[in-house]
Amino acid sequence: MDYHKLAKIIIDDVGGSNNIKSVTHCMTRLRFTLKDVSKVNKEDLTKVNEILGTVYSGGQYMIILGANLMPTYNAVVKDFNLNTEAPINENLDEPLKTKWTFKNFGGKILDFIQASVTPMIPGLIAGGMFKVALILIVTFINPNFAKTSSYLLLSAIGDAPFYFMPIMVAYGAATKLGGTQAYAMMATGALLYPTFHDLVSQLAANPNLARQSLFGLQVKVLNYGSSLLPALLISIVAYFAEKYLNKIVPGIFKSIFVGMGTIFISGSLGFLVLGPLGNYLGQIIASIVMFLSKTVGPLAVGLLASILPWLVMTGMHTVLSPFMPQLISNPGYDPILRPAFLLHNMSEGGANIGVALKTKNKKLRSQAWSLAVGAIVAGVTEPSLYGINLKYKKPMYGVMAGGFAGGLVAGLLNAKAYVMGYSNILALPIFENTIGAMIAGIGTSILVAASVTFFLGTDQKNNNDEKLPKIDSHNYSNSSYVAICDGNLEPLSQVNDKAFSSGALGNGVAFKPTGNYVCSPANGSVTALFPTGHAFGITTKTGEEILVHIGINTVNLKGQGFDILVHQGDEVKAGQPIIKVDHNYIENQGYDLTTMLVFTNTNGKEVHLKDAGKVSVGTIINS
Known about the structure:
eight-stranded antiparallel sheet, four-stranded antiparallel sheet, flat
């Protein structure tokens, strides 16, 4: 199969590379965000044998490729200069874009800010931790190092991500909007241009200097280094300016006037309106945080740390991330968010310690100690949260109590983060002269979380004692396919999901499950395993590839209700449990738990499966 040839056919039939804003993929589909969907030649696409079908939904044009997906995606990326986005986590038919309404306005704004800031966070953390290393050297090893040229140049490396943060924000914002990143970055970069920056220094030294103007309009001279909101506003204007100019400028002149006009409009407005407005909005945010810090500051840190485990579970904690760099910029420190995030991680680890000290189960004790170290030292809390604290329920009270108590102590002692860093114990130097306050908060969080958890114990009987499903004791042949769960069979055509019911993803069968385990359909190996637990792939001993998808749109649960029992690459036997499913929880969340078994690649073999009747795990279903 020539995947490069297939890639060219697809690109041509979706209107050419110039019609593509970005491309990404999920488990089975190539997903294009197009400038003009009317240019798609659907008729020709459906004639291509390797293309299983096409769908347009949520602003994306999707081409279903099944087993041909990844080689085709790689060829598309390699052969064409396209913008790429992060892979989609197998959300088969939920719209990816929704209309703006009064009800979702706030959420849309926060989503845009979050997406704009996310690409720069690793850079800020890297710069922050680099500055921490320099602080440690000067403080504990060689104070005179601060007077050397090496320190000066190394400081520039650590400071660069913060000073040029607006340009990185502009990149993220333009990517999210679908505009040309370079235009937004250049227009934003003008605010950091050395000549303009020199004016800031000159005015600071001599406030009586003549006022600066552009087209006769006064320009407010401000230091925009490390700023966030001006870059967001400029990027929005750049996107709409580019969009408008593309409509009115004749095709032959687009390459000359669209880019030039875009940076002229957004850059000029950046100096005159957008920069000062963004600075003003940033001051409002800083004022609100400072007010909370001076009034209910300790209580605010404690309350945020105590509810963070629930925010993490819903993904809502990410909406707070963009405001951390804003606070580091103005007022120059973060007295609430970073302390609360770090103390939440400490309390997750503390609750694990309580479990380890309380339980008599050696395997659980070992796991709890391991996860405690991961949460406290590395700042990785999801395994602790989902693997123990939420799973055994009562430790969650310990997490909340530890977060609140630690936050209250750290807030009362006025802990502040002065640079970006990870939320783990190794990042203590980012609190600089308030490090003692943060150490006290950390100690309190761990001690209280461990003590409360130890006192309350765990609900192990509700989680550990359930027996695995019983299956036939004999070994299945490599040509046998078995029921993956207890329940009732139904034809794939009856599934309430077009991608499956149409047969576009392959032939197979659906299950209406009644048990809490989903098992391997055949002898083979686990060749695909989604971290959310809602889907996995098995390659059989005879080469067939099978996709098992648990429920419809259950990827939105982000792993809640699913417990993965194997690892990708593991050899498994027919009927071996792969995923434990909290049947009641998932259905109470409103999800259809119909589970699909689909052959994405039969390896040339004819497969006939039963599609009616009641079955138990291990029942042979091929005829």
